[in-house]
Design brief:
alpha/beta, 408 residues, four-stranded parallel beta sheet, seven-stranded mixed beta sheet, elongated, 38% helix, Rossmann fold, 2 domains
Length: 408
């Protein structure tokens, strides 16, 4: 009787990001080449803890077909195992030697726990994790981007440029919100690439508490500054991370009964942040007698399943090949990463965690020269504009960009 083929099992956790299929395709091809079976499991960890999991067997042709597609050929799930019973037969019946997970740090830590549990059941497998997030907030070495970020930003720039063209054509303003729970990388990248006159990200508030009133006044500061320049249109970009960093008392002012996740953050996916901010901006402008039309634009789910651009196709190929390299070297329980020279390195969760075992998000370097130059070239009120604001029903200092960001 011939020996059963060894197999590789792939699952995806969390939300979509451009390049997932590129990673799956590359992993499948390099292991098929070495005569492994390659199996995907639908619904992430939910599938692993199901009595009737839905499996997908990969051949070269399917792997080849999905390489440059957006989305994920494997259905994803945010399911996080707790006390459920693991379906160990998936690993035994298919002679699984490697579990490849694609997702965030929760997915990676769950894979580590599963591998340790299987070892107690005399089932020895390796596990290697491919980190992904369009938020780009994972602290990878060399400040290398997480896969999917550049593709999502590119798609956001296409939308942003179209919206800016509408603003210019219709002489209107738009209040735009972009994804990014902890960090403002997407909002910053899109706004800078589209030459928006105002962008607001959580990292800006490193010397003052974030409040809705400050955000609104920053938007209006840009609107008024442009009016002084006889420019009657624009787009103000606001990162959704602003909302995640608000105190609960501030969130309560909005008047919407948010649900909260296990970390105490308001779950904002089911509401439009741009609509909320747009209403607040309109109310404030009415209060000060400013007659300007503003419209809300939300950028979120549109970015997650777009086709990956060339940068991510290359990065995902490198990471997929890197999975095989690390596996062949006997590595397990690690993340695959690539440095700026394209060298594959194993990265362990402990390399990323602080002394409390938490992974601190990588933020926009607000004190970098690039950030300083970008913010210097936005349009907003500063002290030299005070004398030109006599026709406005405002206290100029209340709309001074620099003063807002140091308010006590």
């Amino acid at each position: 009787m011939s020996e059963r083929k060894k197999s590789v099992l792939i699952l995806c956790g969390g939300g979509p990001a451009p390049g997932i299929n590129s990673v799956i395709s590359t992993v499948a091809k390099v292991f098929l080449k070495d005569d492994y079976r390659v199996i995907g499991i639908h619904e992430g960890f939910k599938g692993l803890f199901s009595e009737e999991p839905e499996l997908k067997e990969f051949d070269f042709f399917h792997a080849d077909r999905i390489f440059s597609r957006g989305g994920s050929t494997l259905i994803m799930s945010r399911f996080k195992p707790s006390n459920e019973a693991l379906n160990t037969s998936i690993f035994k019946d298919n002679n699984v030697k490697l579990l490849v997970t694609i997702g965030g740090d929760d997915t990676a830590s769950s894979a580590n726990r599963i591998t340790q549990y299987l070892r107690k059941e005399d089932i020895v497998i390796s596990n290697i994790h491919v980190p992904k997030t369009i938020d780009n907030d994972l602290p990878l070495p060399d400040r290398n981007p997480t896969f999917g970020f550049h593709s999502a930003k590119d798609e956001g720039v296409k939308i942003g440029n179209t919206v800016y063209e509408d603003a210019r054509t219709s002489q209107n303003w738009f209040v735009m919100s972009a994804m990014g729970r902890s960090a403002g990388h997407l909002a910053f990248g899109i706004a800078a690439s589209c030459h928006f006159p105002m962008m607001i990200i959580p990292e800006m508030f490193n010397k003052t508490e974030i409040t809705l009133d400050k955000v609104v006044r920053l938007v209006i500061s840009s609107i008024i500054k442009r009016q002084l320049k006889n420019i009657h249109y624009g787009v103000a970009m606001v990162s959704e991370g602003i909302f995640h960093n608000l105190k609960k008392s501030e969130v309560d002012k909005i008047g919407i009964n948010f649900t909260y996740d296990s970390h105490g953050h308001p779950e904002l996916g089911n509401v439009s942040k741009s609509h909320i901010l747009n209403v607040l901006v309109q109310d404030k402008m009415k209060e000060i007698g400013l007659d300007v039309k503003t419209r809300p634009i939300e950028i979120g789910y549109e970015l997650r399943c777009c086709r990956p651009i060339g940068f991510d196709l290359t990065l995902c190929t490198l990471l997929g090949i890197g999975v095989k390299k690390l596996f062949d070297e006997g590595k397990s329980g690690c993340l695959v990463s690539a440095n700026s020279r394209g060298e594959i390195l194993p990265l362990y969760l402990t390399d990323l965690q602080d002394e409390n075992g938490k992974i601190q998000p990588r933020l926009v370097e607000i004190d970098s020269e690039f950030a300083h130059l970008c913010f210097q070239n936005l349009h907003y009120i500063k002290e030299s504009d005070y004398k030109d604001l006599k026709d406005y029903n405002i206290n100029p200092e209340a709309y001074d960009f620099d003063k807002i960001l140091i308010e006590k």
